[in-house]
User: Which sequence fits this backbone?
């Protein structure tokens, strides 16, 4: 994997987090850290999820985080518990949380995937997705795909395709083109490719999800 | 007075800044070293205790943290209703403390029998003594054995389990369900508020119904309730209607509210008969979930006021004995429910407050979350969520208006199905955040 572009971004996030983490004197409010700690019961410690239907949010771009939370808050996404939770937070608090997660190192966990589909997915990714989801979908200007949980990615794609989540610019055309090219295999192939990046080699058995099984994703 | 206020404000701002720095993880300031390292003793290796121990060490590796629990591993109550349906094993709910040891927590296997707030010392059954600078107490609930005449601990262990701690009684209840004749009658006695896991008895009825659907399709399940309403009631009833014929003559599940005669006063253990105010109920399998109070050690250590332990909700420090922090089910944490998510959320607030205290800073403003999923049956999950702020004037943890609440009524099958998988992923993540 090529990490050339993500290293400075990671540092930038850290530095920006340092600036925004200083609250104005006298203003009483929970810190970004305190707010973000409450997410861990569902998204894993510091946002590295070990549960396959909950997305990893560590290392996420803060703008992507805030956009997602605002979309939940405004009921623009397929209703889940997140719509109800997001309504509790102000924009400022979402930004504080976003900076916290941006400064966390994403730990990814091995998961079962289909090697043939993943290989097909790599080709589709390069042709249709890499332009926005750079470096195989590592955390960056778009949501985290590389190492993301496969069941979660499936839910996400179902929601896009069923009109329950707003397509980002150009994405609809690109996904339709991938489906045109690969048919029903396109989405499973892409999703397996992204999921495969959390593992050292293909496997069809469920991987361990303990901390010991984690591989830190270098950034 | 004025100068004092200024100092508070200043300290709070400084505390916020330190919290921000710690948030950076890799750039965090090393804790100030003031002589010997500060000692925190944690009583109880459940959700509250484990989470607090882990986060104390994570936020300040200079602390010496000792966690004391009588068991060598933790068996979670959450998801234990799925053992009753046969969807999972008790082993899948059992976790050792090696993850915490990996964070540098010293784990001691023993019962705590006393906490001396003046000497700042914890004493165990094995006559070990542990000095502390701060003590965390998260012992979970105990039972009011005298509430139902004829029921006691020995009967619970051998013939009429409560199974409100996951362990041998969970397996006993499972075996009784398997041995029950086809067309048998299961009775669940649900406790009055407040108690551990408000939706739990109804999830239990649902999971037993799931088992019976496959193995004893003519069985009946009666919930005898000390209350007239319960958590996620509308959603449970929607699920029961869809899955178990609720509301028809042929319903597998019956719910008898207190007003309808569901409150139980007495048990005849030999005939498994429950004496209600209006009529008696006889079951082939009986599960009594007794009324609850804080765990025994909270009484022994003089931490209770009534049944539960009052705390300053900014820090979870006991209002009765400074330096002792009571978390989770044992604490009086209105308006949070007694749940694993709540205990996990409270533990992080207490850990940060203890570290602030050690650094002579004011505690930051707390924030809390609760979420709770229930699996009603095949592909039918439901949830409740709340985000809370502290109202410091009333020392109440208040849900933030306009947020939280339960899953939508009559949601699509796809959403109900997803909530089952969210429930199982939640389980993995909360265990991870607690002890891995
Ligand atoms: C059937 C059921 C289903 C549930 N489902 C959910 C759910 O889906 N979601 C959810 O959020 N919550 C759920 N819960 C609730 C959850 O289990 C509790 O709220 C949670 O465990 C509370 O954490 P705690 O730290 O207060 O206590 P516990 O987790 O009970 O831990 C207490 C620990 O203290 C130890 N201890 C007690 N006394 C002493 C002593 N004297 N010395 C040393 N150690 C001691 C015990 O051994 C135990 O390990 C459920 C509960 C039940 C019964």
Assistant:
């Amino acid at each position: 994997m090529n990490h050339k572009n993500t290293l400075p971004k990671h540092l930038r996030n850290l530095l920006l987090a340092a600036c925004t983490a200083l609250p104005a004197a006298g203003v009483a409010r929970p810190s970004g850290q305190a707010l973000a700690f409450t997410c861990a019961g569902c998204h894993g410690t510091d946002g590295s999820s070990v549960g396959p239907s909950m997305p990893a949010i560590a290392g996420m771009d803060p703008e992507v985080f805030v956009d997602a939370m605002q979309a939940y808050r405004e009921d623009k996404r397929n209703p889940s518990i997140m719509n109800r939770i997001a309504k509790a937070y102000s924009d400022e608090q979402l930004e504080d949380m976003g900076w916290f997660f941006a400064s966390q190192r994403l730990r990814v966990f091995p998961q079962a995937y289909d090697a043939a589909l993943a290989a097909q997915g790599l080709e589709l990714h390069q042709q249709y997705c890499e332009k926005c989801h750079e470096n195989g979908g590592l955390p960056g200007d778009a949501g985290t795909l590389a190492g993301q949980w496969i069941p979660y990615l499936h839910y996400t794609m179902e929601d896009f395709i069923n009109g329950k989540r707003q397509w980002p610019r150009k994405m609809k055309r690109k996904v339709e083109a991938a489906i045109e090219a690969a048919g029903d295999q396109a989405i499973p192939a892409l999703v397996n490719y992204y999921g495969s990046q959390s593992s050292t080699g293909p496997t069809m058995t469920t991987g361990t999800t303990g901390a010991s099984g984690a591989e830190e994703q270098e950034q | 007075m004025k100068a004092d206020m200024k100092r508070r404000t200043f300290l709070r701002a400084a505390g916020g800044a330190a919290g921000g720095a710690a948030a950076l993880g890799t750039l965090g300031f090393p804790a100030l070293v003031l002589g010997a390292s500060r000692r925190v003793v944690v009583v109880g290796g459940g959700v509250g205790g484990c989470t607090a121990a882990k986060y104390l060490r994570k936020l300040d590796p200079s602390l010496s943290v000792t966690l004391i629990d009588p068991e060598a591993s933790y068996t979670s109550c959450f998801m234990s209703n799925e053992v009753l349906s046969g969807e999972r094993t008790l082993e899948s709910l059992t976790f050792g403390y090696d993850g915490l040891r990996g964070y540098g927590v010293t784990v001691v296997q023993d019962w705590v029998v006393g906490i001396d707030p003046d000497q700042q010392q914890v004493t165990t059954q094995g006559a070990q003594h542990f000095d502390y600078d701060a003590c965390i107490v998260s012992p979970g609930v105990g039972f009011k054995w005298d509430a139902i005449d004829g029921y006691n601990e020995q009967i619970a262990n051998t013939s009429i389990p409560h199974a409100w701690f996951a362990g041998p009684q969970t397996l006993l209840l499972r075996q009784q369900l398997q041995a029950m004749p086809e067309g048998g009658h299961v009775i669940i006695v649900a406790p009055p508020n407040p108690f551990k896991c408000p939706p739990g008895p109804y999830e239990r009825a649902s999971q037993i119904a799931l088992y019976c659907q496959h193995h004893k399709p003519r069985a009946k399940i009666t919930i005898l309730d000390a209350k007239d309403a319960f958590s996620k009631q509308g959603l449970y009833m929607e699920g029961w209607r869809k899955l178990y014929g609720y509301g028809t003559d042929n319903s597998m599940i019956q719910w008898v509210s207190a007003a309808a005669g569901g409150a139980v006063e007495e048990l005849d253990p030999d005939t498994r008969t429950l004496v209600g105010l209006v009529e008696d109920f006889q079951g082939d399998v009986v599960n009594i979930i007794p009324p609850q109070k804080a765990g025994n050690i909270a009484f022994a250590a003089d931490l209770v006021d009534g049944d539960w332990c009052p705390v300053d909700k900014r820090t979870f420090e006991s209002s009765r004995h400074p330096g002792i922090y009571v978390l989770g089910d044992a604490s009086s944490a209105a308006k949070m429910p007694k749940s694993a998510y709540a205990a996990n959320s409270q533990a992080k607030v207490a850990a940060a407050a203890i570290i602030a205290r050690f650094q002579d800073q004011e505690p930051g403003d707390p924030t809390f979350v609760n979420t709770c999923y229930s699996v009603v049956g095949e592909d039918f999950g439901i949830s409740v969520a709340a985000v809370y702020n502290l109202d410091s004037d009333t020392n109440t943890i208040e849900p933030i208006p306009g947020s939280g609440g339960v899953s939508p009524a009559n949601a699509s099958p796809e959403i109900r199905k997803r909530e089952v998988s969210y429930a199982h992923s939640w389980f993995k993540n909360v265990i991870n955040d607690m002890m891995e």
Remarks:
- Residues 1-34 of chain B have pLDDT under 50 and may be disordered.
- The pocket of flavin-adenine dinucleotide is lined by residues B 43-49, 68-71, 74, 77-78, 80-81, 111-112, 138-140, 164, 196-197, 200, 295, 297, 328-330, 338-341, 343, 372 (CB under 6 Å).
- Chain B is about 35% helix and 25% strand.
